[in-house]
Amino acid sequence: MLSRVLPLTIITLLLIISPALSLAADAAFQRTWERTDKPVFDGQAARTWMWGPESFTGTVTEEYAESPGGTRDVQYFDKSRMEVTNPDAVDDGVWYVTNGLLVVELISGNMQTGHDSFETRSPAGVPVAGDSDDVDGPTYATFVALLEVEPVALRQAMTERVDRNGRVTQDKALGALGITAVHIDNVTNHAVAEPFWEFMNSTGVVWEDGGLAEATLFQDSLFATGRPITEAYWATVKVANTAKDVLIQCFERRCLTFTPDNPEGWQVEAGNVGRHYYSWRYNQTEPEPSPTPTPTPGMGLVSVSSIQGIETSAGSVDGDTRYGTTFIGTSSGDVPGTFRAKINYTPPKPGSGVTNTVVGGEWSITSDKGTVNGTFQGGSAQWDEAGDYATINVIMKVIARTGDFEGLPREARFDGTLSHTVFPPRIAGVLTIYP
Fold first, then answer.
1. 356-379 b/e with 16+ CB inside 10 Å = b?
2. Which domain holds residue 156?
3. Tell me, what's the pLDDT at 284?
4. DSSP characters for 185-229?
5. Taking a C-beta distance cutoff of 8 angstroms, is the pair 238, 16 a contact?
6. Given this model, what pLDDT does residue 24 score?
């Protein structure tokens, strides 16, 4: 939860890559993000991000043969990539911005550079779901041999497991969960699992015409996901260092997961396909941001929430202390809402191998359910050797709470990461409130 001054060379690079070649693309990308993810960011909707809290690139250009000049405007988010392939097309509010067939490319190993042109690479050996260092869960390459599998029958229970090597086995005990196939795609001939089909056709709070509205989440059910290209398989994956049974199904544009013990609204989640694809395409080797932790349901003695957000102000320096570094983001889980924090720390400048010590600050979570606010009591941020990522462990105090949050205990802590490889810097982690 700390800031650093960007070197001049990095600022110059941002000025080069961030401005869009098409202002229309920038506006269209913003509008597309806002429709599904602004309500999540503002704490008005409890569901998976379809894009992410913010993009991790500016609007950049990539080779695409059929676009004007042979390049098109794109922008990368955790969950996908937005594209404007034909800037001269009529903006219909739905298909003017597309999100690429990234999963097709990651599984096939063929990077698309035009309607019918590809660059041959290798299938991505990146875990589809869970922690990036999971050595047992399936990767995109796992599904290469499973693309032509026959669909399960409608209303048949989903009881097949897949391991990293693509070996499929039956686990009849999974039938007790009652997850069945409810739709067979007439183009790809794959069955869609019930939780994913319901999500693709769901309604919820969206941002339209400058305000919140209740509407279909996707104006076209295939817009976000595309068609299914695999069957749905159960797999054991590592999530926040804990092994979990997760149902995974890959579509042309996204891979969706279903985790039965996640809280309502977060059982279906979209994988970090945008991050995975960007690393695969550009051969990036830096670590990914910490995966979104799985919240613990219910308002029990211990309350757990997932925090994701961005730095909005670096604050100011007085002597050997930086005051008022400010963050805003979302809290999901037991204490949902808009998360805000101002934090003070010393020494005032993070960097390679530096440990910053927290010396005060304040935080809050607000929603229509109530408010929680408190102070920072101590803790630290330990930076890696490159000065790109910090591991954060902060001790907090709950000072006041209202509404549904009145019964919360008084002690709290935040454990997570801060990334300075993107601008603005971003945080992700777990807020735990306990007796």
1. bebbebbbbbbbeebbbbbebbeb
2. 145-268
3. 55
4. -TTT--EEEHHHHHHHT-EEEEEETTEEEEEES-SSTTTTT-SB-
5. no
6. 56
Q: Which amino acid is at 333?
A: G
Q: Are residues 319 and 223 both part of a single domain?
A: no
Question: CA–CA separation, 231 vs 184, rounded Å?
Answer: 10
In this structure, is residue 122 part of a structural domain? no
State the chain's mean pLDDT as an integer: 86
How far is 131 from 246, CA to CA, in rounded Å?
A: 13
Give strand pairing partners of 435.
none
Residues 6+ apart with CB under 8 A from 40: 46, 47, 48, 49, 330, 332
By percentage, how much of the chain surpasses pLDDT 90?
54
Q: In Å, how far from its chain's centre is CA 222?
A: 19
User: In three state form, how does the secondary structure of 106-130 look?
Assistant: HHHCEEECCCCCEEECCCCCCECCC
Instruction: Give burial (CB, 10 Å; 0-12/13-18/19+) of 90.
Output: exposed
pLDDT confidence bin for 302, thresholds 50/70/90: low
Question: What's the CA gap between 102 and 84, in Å, rounded?
Answer: 15
272 vs 127: CA distance, rounded Å: 10
Q: Is 3 a residue whose pLDDT tops 80? A: no
- pLDDT 10s digits, 68-120: 999 999 999 999 999 999 999 888 878 899 988 999 999 999 999 999 999 99
- Nearest one of 65, 99, 74, 57 to 22, comparing CA atoms: 74
Mean pLDDT of 244-266: 93
Peptide bond into 347 cis (omega under 30): yes
Structure tokens at 340: 């805000």
For residue 223, being part of any structural domain is answered with: yes
Tell which of 251, 268, 285 closes a domain.
Answer: 268
Residue 311 belongs to a domain? yes
What's the average model confidence in pLDDT over 177-181? Answer: 96
- 3-state class (DSSP) for residue 66: coil
- Interval 185-232: pLDDT, tens: 999 999 999 999 999 999 999 999 999 999 999 988 888 899 999 999
Whether the model clears a pTM of 0.85, i.e. scores above it, the answer is no
Rounded to a whole number of angstroms, the CA Rg of the chain reads: 22
Residue ranges with strand state E in 115-180: 118-120, 160-162, 168-170
**Which amino acid, one-letter code, is at 181?**
A
